[in-house]
Amino acid sequence: MSTITIIAAIANNNALGRDNDLIWHLPADLKRFKKVTSGHHILMGRNTFESIGKPLPNRTTVIITRNSDYKAEGCIVVDSIEKAIDVAKEDEQIFIIGGAQIYKQTIASNLVDQLDITKVHHAFDADVFFPEIDTAIWKEVSREGFVADDKNKYDYSFIRYKKV
Fold it and tell me: Which of 36, 63, 73, 145 ranks highest by number of CB atoms within 10 Å?
């Protein structure tokens, strides 16, 4: 049985991005994202895929879109979250990497087992936001905090939540 994990970097005000792009640059988060997701299926909406621009190496990219004509070389394209999960069902660890609509739908549909959150300790002007994490449903099971340095402009924490 697969574990389905949302992986996201969110700001103090739950900001995810602006104009279909990330607002901040945290190399430590990108390095961790690569390490954690390598070798696994990564599920994402079309806008998220287009902001990345290509399939990520050593991962199976599954794009969710209602556009039945959409094609992306080197990727699997499906029209629902459920089909994306079904395509990845042989993977013991499936990652949902965005965007905001996909996060909201998978949490609301009770499809997710854990949240792997990078909390950026700053508030940003954004146009897309992560849903509120309901602590009645999600229990924090681990946290690692880091202070800003010459490569990472903001303080941040890696936080894992599991469903209660």
Answer: 63
